[in-house]
UniProtKB/TrEMBL annotation:
One of its GO terms (molecular function) is purine-nucleoside phosphorylase activity. NCBIfam families: deoD, PRK05819.1. Gene3D superfamilies: Nucleoside phosphorylase domain (3.40.50.1580). This is Uridine phosphorylase. Its EC number is 2.4.2.3. The lineage of its organism: Bacteria, Bacillati, Actinomycetota, Coriobacteriia, Coriobacteriales. Belongs to the PNP/UDP phosphorylase family. It comes from Enorma phocaeensis. It catalyses: uridine + phosphate = alpha-D-ribose 1-phosphate + uracil. Pfam families: PNP_UDP_1 (PF01048). Residues 19-226 form the Nucleoside phosphorylase domain. Signal peptide: none annotated. Keywords: Glycosyltransferase, Transferase.
Length: 238
Protein backbone atom coordinates (compact mmCIF):
# COMPACT_ATOMS: atom_id res chain seq x y z
CA UNK A 1 0.00 0.00 0.00
CA UNK A 2 1.39 3.50 -0.83
CA UNK A 3 2.70 5.65 1.96
CA UNK A 4 0.35 7.41 4.36
CA UNK A 5 -0.38 10.11 5.33
CA UNK A 6 -0.75 11.86 1.98
CA UNK A 7 -0.45 15.57 1.15
CA UNK A 8 -4.24 15.86 1.54
CA UNK A 9 -5.03 13.36 4.29
CA UNK A 10 -3.45 13.07 7.75
CA UNK A 11 -4.86 9.59 8.45
CA UNK A 12 -2.53 6.65 8.87
CA UNK A 13 -2.81 3.20 7.32
CA UNK A 14 -5.80 1.42 8.87
CA UNK A 15 -7.54 4.60 10.02
CA UNK A 16 -10.29 4.30 7.39
CA UNK A 17 -12.91 1.56 7.26
CA UNK A 18 -13.36 -0.34 3.97
CA UNK A 19 -16.56 1.65 3.31
CA UNK A 20 -16.62 5.46 3.40
CA UNK A 21 -19.58 7.82 3.14
CA UNK A 22 -18.58 11.11 1.48
CA UNK A 23 -20.62 14.32 1.66
CA UNK A 24 -19.30 17.44 0.00
CA UNK A 25 -19.42 19.54 3.17
CA UNK A 26 -16.91 18.53 5.88
CA UNK A 27 -19.33 19.85 8.53
CA UNK A 28 -21.91 17.40 7.22
CA UNK A 29 -19.32 14.67 7.66
CA UNK A 30 -18.99 15.77 11.29
CA UNK A 31 -22.77 15.74 11.66
CA UNK A 32 -23.03 12.21 10.26
CA UNK A 33 -20.27 10.94 12.54
CA UNK A 34 -21.76 12.54 15.65
CA UNK A 35 -25.34 11.54 14.83
CA UNK A 36 -25.00 8.01 13.48
CA UNK A 37 -21.62 6.47 14.32
CA UNK A 38 -20.63 4.85 17.58
CA UNK A 39 -17.20 5.63 19.04
CA UNK A 40 -16.41 8.02 16.17
CA UNK A 41 -12.93 9.54 16.15
CA UNK A 42 -11.48 12.15 13.84
CA UNK A 43 -8.75 10.67 11.64
CA UNK A 44 -7.98 13.64 9.37
CA UNK A 45 -8.58 17.36 9.09
CA UNK A 46 -6.08 18.63 6.51
CA UNK A 47 -7.34 21.88 4.95
CA UNK A 48 -10.48 21.51 7.06
CA UNK A 49 -11.59 18.38 5.17
CA UNK A 50 -12.77 16.38 8.16
CA UNK A 51 -12.79 12.60 8.24
CA UNK A 52 -14.03 10.25 10.96
CA UNK A 53 -14.14 6.52 11.63
CA UNK A 54 -16.55 4.71 13.93
CA UNK A 55 -19.12 1.96 13.63
CA UNK A 56 -22.74 1.67 12.57
CA UNK A 57 -24.69 -1.26 14.01
CA UNK A 58 -21.36 -2.89 14.77
CA UNK A 59 -19.87 -2.42 11.29
CA UNK A 60 -16.81 -0.20 10.82
CA UNK A 61 -17.78 2.86 8.74
CA UNK A 62 -15.90 6.04 7.91
CA UNK A 63 -17.18 9.38 6.72
CA UNK A 64 -15.16 12.16 5.08
CA UNK A 65 -15.89 15.36 3.19
CA UNK A 66 -14.86 15.62 -0.46
CA UNK A 67 -15.31 19.30 -1.26
CA UNK A 68 -16.91 20.76 -4.37
CA UNK A 69 -16.35 19.64 -7.93
CA UNK A 70 -14.70 16.78 -9.77
CA UNK A 71 -11.06 17.81 -9.16
CA UNK A 72 -11.70 17.82 -5.41
CA UNK A 73 -13.53 14.49 -5.12
CA UNK A 74 -11.05 13.14 -7.63
CA UNK A 75 -8.16 13.75 -5.25
CA UNK A 76 -9.83 12.47 -2.09
CA UNK A 77 -11.44 9.39 -3.62
CA UNK A 78 -8.20 8.47 -5.43
CA UNK A 79 -6.25 8.55 -2.19
CA UNK A 80 -8.90 6.59 -0.28
CA UNK A 81 -8.95 3.87 -2.94
CA UNK A 82 -5.21 3.70 -3.59
CA UNK A 83 -3.52 4.79 -0.36
CA UNK A 84 -5.95 3.69 2.33
CA UNK A 85 -7.35 0.44 0.94
CA UNK A 86 -10.95 1.68 0.85
CA UNK A 87 -13.15 -0.63 -1.21
CA UNK A 88 -16.44 1.28 -1.32
CA UNK A 89 -17.34 4.97 -1.43
CA UNK A 90 -20.93 6.19 -1.18
CA UNK A 91 -21.29 9.87 -2.01
CA UNK A 92 -24.15 11.43 -0.03
CA UNK A 93 -24.77 14.83 -1.54
CA UNK A 94 -27.19 17.44 -2.77
CA UNK A 95 -28.50 18.04 -6.26
CA UNK A 96 -30.61 20.42 -8.28
CA UNK A 97 -33.76 18.80 -9.60
CA UNK A 98 -34.59 18.68 -13.30
CA UNK A 99 -37.40 16.09 -13.55
CA UNK A 100 -40.89 17.56 -13.24
CA UNK A 101 -42.00 15.07 -10.58
CA UNK A 102 -39.10 15.73 -8.20
CA UNK A 103 -39.68 17.78 -5.05
CA UNK A 104 -37.35 19.24 -2.42
CA UNK A 105 -35.83 16.54 -0.16
CA UNK A 106 -36.58 13.73 -2.64
CA UNK A 107 -33.85 11.09 -2.90
CA UNK A 108 -32.14 10.22 -6.20
CA UNK A 109 -29.77 7.33 -6.83
CA UNK A 110 -27.38 8.09 -9.67
CA UNK A 111 -27.38 4.98 -11.84
CA UNK A 112 -25.28 6.86 -14.36
CA UNK A 113 -23.54 10.23 -14.46
CA UNK A 114 -23.44 12.25 -17.66
CA UNK A 115 -20.83 15.00 -17.64
CA UNK A 116 -19.56 18.08 -19.44
CA UNK A 117 -16.15 17.59 -17.80
CA UNK A 118 -12.88 16.52 -19.42
CA UNK A 119 -12.05 14.38 -16.37
CA UNK A 120 -12.02 11.18 -18.44
CA UNK A 121 -9.26 12.52 -20.72
CA UNK A 122 -6.61 11.45 -18.20
CA UNK A 123 -7.39 7.79 -18.90
CA UNK A 124 -6.52 8.07 -22.60
CA UNK A 125 -9.58 6.15 -23.80
CA UNK A 126 -10.30 5.95 -27.54
CA UNK A 127 -13.91 7.01 -27.05
CA UNK A 128 -16.45 8.24 -24.49
CA UNK A 129 -16.59 6.52 -21.09
CA UNK A 130 -20.01 6.01 -19.45
CA UNK A 131 -19.62 6.47 -15.66
CA UNK A 132 -22.03 4.16 -13.80
CA UNK A 133 -22.71 3.08 -10.23
CA UNK A 134 -21.85 -0.32 -8.84
CA UNK A 135 -24.96 -2.41 -9.50
CA UNK A 136 -24.88 -4.32 -6.20
CA UNK A 137 -24.63 -1.07 -4.22
CA UNK A 138 -27.41 0.48 -6.28
CA UNK A 139 -29.64 -2.55 -5.75
CA UNK A 140 -28.91 -2.52 -2.00
CA UNK A 141 -29.79 1.17 -1.78
CA UNK A 142 -33.08 0.71 -3.61
CA UNK A 143 -33.97 -2.21 -1.32
CA UNK A 144 -33.00 -0.20 1.78
CA UNK A 145 -35.14 2.74 0.66
CA UNK A 146 -38.10 0.40 0.12
CA UNK A 147 -37.72 -1.07 3.62
CA UNK A 148 -37.53 2.41 5.13
CA UNK A 149 -40.49 3.71 3.14
CA UNK A 150 -38.34 6.27 1.33
CA UNK A 151 -39.28 7.19 -2.22
CA UNK A 152 -36.19 6.92 -4.40
CA UNK A 153 -35.72 7.78 -8.06
CA UNK A 154 -33.08 5.92 -10.04
CA UNK A 155 -31.55 7.21 -13.26
CA UNK A 156 -29.08 9.52 -14.93
CA UNK A 157 -27.73 12.67 -13.34
CA UNK A 158 -25.49 15.37 -14.79
CA UNK A 159 -22.10 15.97 -13.18
CA UNK A 160 -21.26 19.47 -14.35
CA UNK A 161 -18.21 21.67 -13.92
CA UNK A 162 -20.50 24.71 -14.04
CA UNK A 163 -22.78 25.76 -11.16
CA UNK A 164 -24.07 29.13 -12.41
CA UNK A 165 -25.15 28.15 -15.92
CA UNK A 166 -28.25 30.31 -16.34
CA UNK A 167 -30.39 27.21 -16.85
CA UNK A 168 -28.53 26.11 -19.99
CA UNK A 169 -27.74 22.65 -18.67
CA UNK A 170 -31.32 21.93 -17.68
CA UNK A 171 -32.58 23.00 -21.10
CA UNK A 172 -30.08 20.70 -22.79
CA UNK A 173 -30.10 17.63 -20.53
CA UNK A 174 -33.64 17.42 -19.16
CA UNK A 175 -35.13 16.33 -22.52
CA UNK A 176 -32.69 13.38 -22.42
CA UNK A 177 -34.26 12.15 -19.20
CA UNK A 178 -31.55 13.42 -16.84
CA UNK A 179 -33.13 13.67 -13.39
CA UNK A 180 -30.89 16.17 -11.62
CA UNK A 181 -27.55 17.95 -11.62
CA UNK A 182 -24.60 17.81 -9.23
CA UNK A 183 -20.83 18.18 -9.56
CA UNK A 184 -18.99 15.03 -8.47
CA UNK A 185 -20.53 11.63 -9.31
CA UNK A 186 -18.90 11.15 -12.71
CA UNK A 187 -15.37 11.60 -11.31
CA UNK A 188 -16.10 9.26 -8.41
CA UNK A 189 -17.45 6.59 -10.75
CA UNK A 190 -14.44 6.91 -13.06
CA UNK A 191 -11.97 6.67 -10.18
CA UNK A 192 -13.77 3.60 -8.86
CA UNK A 193 -13.71 1.94 -12.27
CA UNK A 194 -10.00 2.68 -12.78
CA UNK A 195 -9.17 1.32 -9.31
CA UNK A 196 -11.39 -1.76 -9.57
CA UNK A 197 -13.40 -0.53 -6.56
CA UNK A 198 -17.07 0.27 -5.90
CA UNK A 199 -19.00 3.54 -5.80
CA UNK A 200 -22.53 4.87 -5.53
CA UNK A 201 -23.92 8.39 -5.44
CA UNK A 202 -27.08 9.13 -3.43
CA UNK A 203 -28.52 12.63 -3.65
CA UNK A 204 -31.12 14.73 -1.91
CA UNK A 205 -32.83 17.39 -4.00
CA UNK A 206 -31.84 20.66 -2.33
CA UNK A 207 -33.09 23.07 -4.98
CA UNK A 208 -35.19 23.21 -8.12
CA UNK A 209 -33.96 26.31 -9.97
CA UNK A 210 -36.62 26.29 -12.68
CA UNK A 211 -39.31 26.60 -9.99
CA UNK A 212 -37.36 28.96 -7.75
CA UNK A 213 -37.26 26.44 -4.90
CA UNK A 214 -34.36 25.79 -2.56
CA UNK A 215 -33.43 24.74 0.96
CA UNK A 216 -31.61 27.27 3.15
CA UNK A 217 -27.98 26.39 3.80
CA UNK A 218 -28.63 25.76 7.50
CA UNK A 219 -31.29 23.15 6.66
CA UNK A 220 -29.12 21.17 4.22
CA UNK A 221 -26.85 19.84 6.95
CA UNK A 222 -29.65 18.16 8.93
CA UNK A 223 -32.52 17.65 6.45
CA UNK A 224 -30.86 14.86 4.46
CA UNK A 225 -31.43 12.21 7.11
CA UNK A 226 -33.56 9.92 4.94
CA UNK A 227 -30.79 9.72 2.35
CA UNK A 228 -28.16 9.20 5.02
CA UNK A 229 -30.09 6.36 6.63
CA UNK A 230 -30.47 4.68 3.24
CA UNK A 231 -26.73 5.07 2.67
CA UNK A 232 -25.85 3.65 6.08
CA UNK A 233 -28.06 0.62 5.58
CA UNK A 234 -26.46 0.17 2.17
CA UNK A 235 -23.05 0.27 3.87
CA UNK A 236 -24.11 -2.68 6.02
CA UNK A 237 -24.36 -4.79 2.84
CA UNK A 238 -20.72 -4.17 1.91
Amino acid sequence: MPKTPTPHNAALEGDFAPVVLMPGDPLRAKYIAETYLDDARQVTGVRGMLGFTGSYQGKPVSVMGHGMGMPSIGIYSYELYHNYGVETIIRVGSAGGYADDLELRDVVAAQGACTDSNYANQFGLPGTFAPIADFELLSAAVAAAKRQGVKIRVGNVLSSDVFYDGGANERAWKPMGVLATEMEAAALYMNAAAAGKRALCLLTISDIPSRGLGLPAEERQTSFNQMLEVALETALSC
